[in-house]
Amino acid sequence: MRLLEVRDMIGRLAGLLMGIVEAPINALEGFMGRKRMPYLFLAPNLLLFGIFTFLPIAIAAGYAFTGGTELFVSDRPFVGFDNFRQLLACEDYLRPGSCRESLFWTAIWNTLWFVAFNVTATLLAALVTALILNRAIAARGFFRAIFFYPVLLSPVVIGLIWKWFLDRNGLLNAFLQILGVPPEIFLLDVGWSRFFVVVVSVWFHMGFYTLILLAGLQAIPKDLYEAAAIDAASPRRTLLRITLPLLGPNLLVVLILLMIRSVQIFDEAWVLTNGGGPGTANSFIVQYIYQMAFGSDLRLFGLASAASVLMGLVLLVLTLIQLRLGRKMES
Amino acid sequence: MSHGFNPIGFLTRTRRPGRIEITDILSWLWLIAGTLAVLVPVVWAGLSSFKPAAEITRFPPTLLPRTAVETSVQGYEKPLSLWTVTIDGKTREMAMVRRIGLKAQMVDPQSPEAPVSVDVRAMSPVQKLTAATENYTDPLTRFDFLTFLKNSVFVTFVATLLTLIVNAMAAFALSKYRFRGKNAIFVLIISTLMIPLTVVMVPAYLVVVGVGLVDSLWGIIIPTVASPTAVFLLRQYMLTIPDELIEAARVDAASEFRIFWRIILPLTAPALAVLAIFSVLWRWNDFLWPLIVLSSRENFTLQVGLNAFQGEFSVQWHYILAMTFLSLLPVTAVFLFLQKYITTGIAGTGMK
What we know:
The structure holds 2 protein chains of 2 kinds. Chain A is globular, with a radius of gyration of 26 Å. Chain A is built from 13 helices and no strands. Chain A is mostly helical. Chain A folds into 2 domains: about 1-70, no CATH class; about 80-330, Orthogonal Bundle (MetI-like fold). Chain B has 3 domains: about 5-50, no CATH class; about 70-125, SH3 type barrels; about 135-350, Orthogonal Bundle (MetI-like fold), CATH 1.10.3720. In chain B, about 55% of the residues lie in helices and about 10% in strands. Chain B is built from 15 helices and 8 strands. In chain B, strands 2, 3, 4, 5, 6 and 7 form a 6-stranded antiparallel beta sheet that branches. Chain B has a two-stranded antiparallel sheet with strand order 1-8. Chain B is elongated, with a radius of gyration of 30 Å. In chain B, about 40% of the residues are buried. At the A-B interface, helix 1, helix 2, helix 4, helix 5 and helix 6 of A face helix 1, helix 2, helix 5, helix 6 and helix 7 of B.
């Protein structure tokens, strides 16, 4: 009853609004002619795209070749490859300390390790969960929903929830005390904090990939399994010869998508580790860009842009691979 | 047939009716462990958000929010805390007057004339269940959280509305008209999907400063309105609407805008609904872009405000958790009611 009233009101309000908008647009149609109307429909979208998407992309590459701390391009001196040289000047890339921008290389190595662990753990967890949820199991919808729930939460909320869970006085330490293990301040320990950044990331995103893999599993024709059952194929054979090969393209897409997103880790790690701590143990590449440009009045916009361009190139390669795979899947 | 544990067999075997196998048990274990892993941190934060400030840092923690029971005793100005005390094998409730080292001076509330000295190891506090609602009301009244909340609601609502209208209009043009440059425009829009915000962070900020939207709520609304995902989703849906409907309307001399508004939009409702849900979730949760654009406190959204607050008051966990939980509630409500829409929406489009 109430809901219907509300809907009715919204409908009438929208109708009123449209009545106001419609008259001038119809007048424009009379003026421009019907053939040109699609341009009018596209105009607001393209205007916003042009200003806030294409313009930044167009500026991005050139911006990396300028220096100084001014924001606007016209006020910035052209410095050629200086920013890139500064980022890449290094005696030994394996030791970030020997690089001119040691923070950049620390971030790169942290990000690489994070990507390796996060991609492996998320993919395995999502695959196992999807395979289990694909079985004829009771309460399937419930479990699917539960695993998916964290995907919808905000990274800040997730960071804070886990920070509290891992607190010195948190629940994990309370469990450990029951087991007789002394309490640990997990987020102040280099090893533990890195471990839990991966745990939280898997916890956060696993449900999304589970859903994609589950859709892939359910698209495998059932008669293939029936045929395998008639041939008395072992479960191992069924998995290796039917399920995984047919899921293969989905797995690859998920793998690339996971890599693209893992490289860009920032939000939840930033909140969880108080900005990349302890020290720089969890400082990742997006955080480096953010801090160079916007953190504590450094205003090293050129350096940040150069780092963005380098990361963008990596992402571009991954995206092209993804598109390639997508096209292969379709054909 | 006997066999040891075979992880591959366990994952692929389909259930034989009427028999419970080891694989079923392992599947259930995985699912239940996963469910606990998802729920425990969230529920723990929710329960903790109702604990009083004095209780929240107690270790080991109590599961439920509890608080000490106090009682007023004749002859004492302030209310005294109530304890369960064991004296000479007998247990009774007494009020604590003061505590000196390992001894505490206690009185019986019924006969407050004769205080006794009790070993602190022989007493435990009397507690009752509580809900420290001040954890919620304080940040909303004394700190700026009501402002953050208003900003978040405003941004979410306005941005979603604009996203739906602007992108539906573009999708209408790209799906129901033939015109010069149509394919080029579509490819151009879709190709921006490949460039995430993190790559163009600095120039995007520059543009927002340039058009004077920096540190304003419109600075986080307007730049995110035109969305390639939305255009793509709506265009694909509109392609399935038969052109005859439009032709018939034109015969009736309907204007193009009227066709869009009266015919196309109502028929696109299912796709618009999915898009609206995602748009709301995305705006409500968005962090990095607002963090860059907004600088003054009165413009913070809930997420940016939460982040700032936890940096400034890192020991005020009772407030932080209450506001975390407040920010989580709308999302949880959306999830509970629209779970089916969301999961099928993702499986169908692969967007988040």
